[in-house]
Design brief:
The protein has eight helices and six strands. Strand 4 (73-74) and strand 5 (77-78) form a beta hairpin. The chain is of the alpha+beta class and 262 residues long. The termini are far apart. It is elongated. Among the domains are: 8-102, 2-Layer Sandwich (Alpha-Beta Plaits); 120-162.
Length: 262
Amino acid sequence: MPTPASRGVIYLGRIPHGFYEDEMRQYFTQFGTVTRLRLSRNKKTGKSKHYAFVEFKDGDVADVVASTMNGYLMFGQVLVCKRLPHSQVHPELFKGANRKFRPANLVAKEMKSINVPKSREAVVKTVKNLIAQEKARVAKIKAMGIDYDFSDISFAALAAKAGLVEGAAPAPSAPAPAPVVEEKPAKKAKEAAKKAPVVEEPALEKQSKKGKRKAPSADAEEVEAPAAAANKKAKSAGAAPAGKPSPAKQAAGKKAVKKARR
């Protein structure tokens, strides 16, 4: 949109960081009505390029702003401000003005270009460029005195196998054999035990053998306890342990044991 002759346009240079569109419009509104404002920014990063163009509704206001703000110190920067003649104002000077700048999402743009389905011609062109780069790299390596064969893993060999460039025809793909999984010995033994018939063993009857001595019961232990206590007491006192009991006492002890076993 071309600028009317009645309006005034100023150039503002050496703009400090932090003095952007909103701050600029609010500041210059004290002089008069601001119709259009455009701060030059980097298209990729969106950072300020430190110069802007401001259009005022009245041309006289533009003259006042140019004379007032030229050489003005702001945030450590000396501003450069001057009015542009109407003949120097380009019709596209305020293209994209009065709207918030949004930097392009370069990551999304790159991902979109990569994920686009490519034709065979495009793939062949890319492969040929890779082969040319590889040849130049191999030539540099040989010029350094290094003799190494890259033919097996080169782009040219891989592309020839895939049928993308002229060369060996692509080899027919044979079906891959099924992988053989060896069973572990423990697993084999468990499976064999499951398949084997279960044979129940007959329960063994408990037979008491003659002459086999059974474990003494609690009553027998109570009878034998006093003699053991007496011997222990005699040992602690330094005296000789009690002698062997008489046959009568032995017979009485045996009877008590038999009675306790019954």
